[in-house]
Amino acid sequence: MRTGLAWVPSLAPARAARALVLRANAARDARRFQAAAALYAEASRLDPVNARIHKQCGHMHKEAGDWAEAERHYLLAEALSPGDADLHLQKGHFFKISHRLDEAQSAYAKALALQPGWQEAADELARITNSRSKGDERTSAINADGLVTELLPGSGAQGSAGWRETIQIRRLGTARIRAGGSYRRVLRGIEAVRGFAISQAALLDAVLLLDGEEIADTLLQRTPLNDGFAKFVFNIWHDFGPYAEGEHVIEIRLRDSRGRGRSHRATLLLQAPITEKDALSSDAIVTVDGEVGASLEARVNARPSMARSAARGLLVSPPRAILVQRVDQLGDLVVSVPAIRRLRAHFPDAVLVALVSPANAGLAASLGLFAEVVEVPFAEAPGEPRRTMPPIAQAALRERLASFHFDIAIDLSEAGESRPLLLLSGASVLFGFKDREFPWLTAGFELGGHDPANHLEIVSPATKLTAMVDALKLMIDPPASALALSPEKAEAERRYAVLHTGARLTYSRWPGFAELAHLLLRDTELDIVFMSDGPLPPDLVEHPRVRSIEGLLAFSAFDALLAGASLFVGNDSGPKHLAALRGTPVVSLHMARLNWNEWGQEPVGTIISRRVPCAGCGIGRQGEECGKDFACLTNIRADEVAAEALKLLI
Fold first, then answer.
1. Which domains does the chain have, with CATH numbers?
2. What is the pLDDT at residue 158?
3. For residue 503, which phi and psi values (nearest 5 degrees)?
4. Per-residue model confidence as pLDDT tens digits over 316-362
5. What does each C-alpha distance from 368 to 329, 335, 353, 354, 533 come to in angstroms?
6. How far apart are CA 70 and CA 59, in angstroms?
7. Which of 613, 581, 626 is nearest to 480 (CA)?
8. Any idea what DSSP says for residue 348?
9. What is the structure's pLDDT at 166?
10. Which pTM does this prediction carry?
C-alpha cells in the first residue's frame, strides 16, 4: 500500500514532462530551436532521469548556438544511458563543429564500438581520422632507414585476433539530409538493404521490419570462414514508396531455424522517391511496372538493360545558364576573378549570373562577365554560430533564382558556410569544395599543397579556383579521344569481332558470350575471335568463322588485334579501354559494382548495364557479399548486346 501511495505524486510531473516534450517536438520541427531547447529543459527538470529528453535538449541547444548547455545535457544523457550509440554519434557531431577534434574522434569510436558495423559512425570516424592524420603522414611515412613504411611487407596486415559475432550493414539508406541537428539517412522508393552477419550460429533468414511490422524477408547466403564462423549475407530489395513520409524505425532481424537471432535497428527518414527521369545516369534509381502479383525482384530483373553512349558528361547538352556564387568579402571575389574569366572562356554561350554579398556587388558588375548580379545579405547574425538565412529570405531568393533556369551552380568559397545556398538555385549540377561534408553536391573538388614544416596551405586561392573551374569543364565535356595504332590502320583480310570473355574478378565475367556469338554469326558477316580462358562450346569450336585464342599474347600482337577489329565486346576490364583507345567500336558489359559512368570506356561505343537497387555495392574480390547472384550482370540478355553491336556496325 505504501508503494502505491508513494507512486502517486510522481505521476503529475511525468505527465507534464510528456506534454512539454510534445510542444518541444513541434518547436523543433518548426526550427524554433531556442524555444524547443527551453521546453526540453523544463521537461528534463520534471523528468531528470529521462536520457532521451536530455539528448534532445542537447541537440536544440547546439542548433541554437548555446554550446555550453548543449554539452551539459549531452553529458547528463550519457550518464543515464552510457550504451546509447546514437548519443555518442551526436556528441561526435557536436565536438566536430566546436573544433574539439580529439573528443569528436573518441565519441565516433565509442559509437562504433557500441554498434559494430554502423556505417555512418564508421564513415565519420574515418573522415576525422584521415583529416587529422594528413600532417602526421608527412613525417612518419619514411622511417629512420629511409624506407617508405607503407610499402614494407606486413605493414597493412589486419592482425590475427580472429572472428567475432557481429552484424555489418553495408547499405541502409544511401542519401543523407540534414534534419534535427545532424545528417540523417533517407530511404526513397525502391532501395536495397544489405549487409552480413559473422556468427557461429546457423542463421537462416533476414527479416526487415518497419516500426515493428514485418515487411520483407530473404534467405541468408552462407559462406564458411574458419574457427566455426560463417558469413551470412542478405540483400533485400523493398519499395518504401507506399509508406508515410517521415521518421521510422527500421530493424533487420537475422534468425536461426528456431526464430532466434540478433537485430540491427536504426531510425531513418522516408521520403518521396526520385524518378528515373530526374536521375537518368543513375543505375541505383529503379522504378518497375510488370505483372500484378509478381515479386519486386522479378519485376526489377524483367526490366530491359540500359544502353548508354560512352561519350558522356555531367550534362546531356552544354550549359545554358550558370550561377557563380561568392557571398564573402571583397578580397574573396578579387582572388576569384581569374577563375570566373576561365569559366567564361570554357562556356562562352552560357549566361553567367553572379550571386554575391553587397560588399562584392560593385566589383562583380564592373567585370563585364555577368549578365546579371544578384545581391544577397548573408552576414553573421548575433547569437548564431554560423551565417543563416530566415525562411522568408530563403523563399525570396529561391523565387528570384528560379527565373534563370540554371544548369550549374558553383560556389567559389572553399569554406563551407555558404555551400547550402546552392540548394536554392534550382540547378541540376551543384558544384563546390568539400563534397564529403555536403553529400548532396553533384560533384566536388579538392586541391592543396602543404608547407613541409608546419603543414599549412601553400597553394593560393586563385590557383585552386582556376583549377576547380578547369575540373568542371572536364566533367561537363570530357577530353578523351581515340589514339590510333598507326596513321593508317591496316585493313584485315576479313572483318572480325573480338569477344573478350575474361576479367580479373571472375564474378564480373558476363555468361552470355557464346549466345552472342551465335547471334553475330547469324546477323553479320563478321568472323568471331574469342579471347577466353576456357574452352568454347563444341558447335562454336567447329564453326569455320570462329577462332579461339587462349592464353596471353605479346602486347604488340594483342594491341594490333584489338585495333584491327570492326567490333569489340568485353567485360569491365582493361582490354575494353585499350580497344576504345584505338578507336575500335566497343560494347562493354558493366556490372553495377561500380558506376558505369566512372569506369565505362571512353570515348567510343556503348556501355550496357542494369538498374538495380543495390547499384554501387563495391563488393570485394570474392564477391560473396552480393546476395543477388550478380543479377546486375547475368540478367543482361545476349539479344540486347547484339542489338547494340549492330548499331555500331552500321
1. 12-131 (1.25.40.10), 166-273 (2.60.40.10), 321-476 (3.40.50.2000), 496-649 (3.40.50.2000)
2. 41
3. -170, 150
4. 889 999 999 999 999 999 999 999 999 999 999 999 999 999 999 99
5. 19, 16, 11, 11, 62
6. 7
7. 581
8. T
9. 86
10. 0.74
